[in-house]
Amino acid sequence: MTKKVLFLCISNSCRSQMAEGILKALAPEKFEVFSAGAKASFVHPFAVKVLGETGIDISGQRSKPVLKFKGREFDYVITVCGDSAKESCPSFMGKAGNRLHWNFEDPAQAKGTDEEVLKVFRKVRDEIKIEIEKFIKELLR
To answer: Could you say which of 38, 105, 124, 136 is the most buried, measured as most Cβ atoms within 10 Å of its Cβ?
Structure first.
């Protein structure tokens, strides 16, 4: 039986999009995965790029507001905002069997050259992947 997972962050452009793509790629038969934000924006091109470097294509994903999922039930709702932005991270008012918070910095806030910003996106991508691998291992043991 698949578990339904919703990843949330502020604008659903980077962290939640990367988490959605990674979990879908690592365990598509075990999870039905979605992402949303307090508001819809766009999928950040650097998120698409750094996941593409690992063979995961999120170019078809779209940014969605959390209200789109009103009335839905999820086994896990996971916020992926940094702790400094936790209070502005959206909350899910529907039914959730488990609510988790994973603290990741917002790579969209990184400053510098494109290469310096991409370095931050890659770091956050790798941190998200490690957390998702632990999540999968914990649930499937």
So the answer is: 124
